[in-house]
UniProtKB/TrEMBL annotation:
Keywords: GTP-binding, Hydrolase, Metal-binding, Nucleotide-binding, Riboflavin biosynthesis, Zinc. It catalyses: GTP + 4 H2O = 2,5-diamino-6-hydroxy-4-(5-phosphoribosylamino)-pyrimidine + formate + 2 phosphate + 3 H(+). GTP binds at residues 49-53, 70, 92-94, 114, 149, 154. This is GTP cyclohydrolase-2.
Amino acid sequence: MTVHFVASAQLPTPWATFQMHGFEDPATGKEHLALTLGDLQQAEPVLMRVHSECLTGDALFSMRCDCGYQLQEALRQIAQAGRGVLLYLRQEGRGIGLLNKIRAYHLQDAGADTVEANEHLGFGADMREYSMLQPMLAHLGVKEVRLLTNNPRKLDALSRYGVQVVERLPLTTGLNPHNHNYLSTKASKLGHMMSTADFTPVQGFSLATPAPKTAD
């Protein structure tokens, strides 16, 4: 995949002022972002999060997943470290797109889990690919990272593209009654390296009264 760097600008956030780098994939028309903080050319491995777009979670505060919580926690941790990278990849709905994601949610409302819903629509459980990582990280000069992830596929992808993951750091935030089954499914069917027992529940929500099946 050929992804081209386009431009950079400052991005003030509640956690820090990041440098925002825009990239474009001419073949698909998709635009990807890298948010960086501090000097990436230092010898120490860079704290990094590879985050796939989730409009419902990242922008609309959905509690059906943990994506928005993960995004905010990753930015907070990078800001606290004073140095790091967050790659924001335009792969909505684990690669099936926003409208198909809504269709999948409709099936989940009827009782399917997140994997069953994707497969019922004719998609794989996870359609994302990560070839854009190579040109983006090459542009940033990042070769060694401490990766914030629960997903083994991201570890494999970075290894394939010549980036050494010296440490994996789990992201276990955002547990609530609406995503408990979703998180369990990611662990049991997608191989994510986590258990809901590892998660800190969202403040103000109790798991004592489970959400209805529609919340998977």
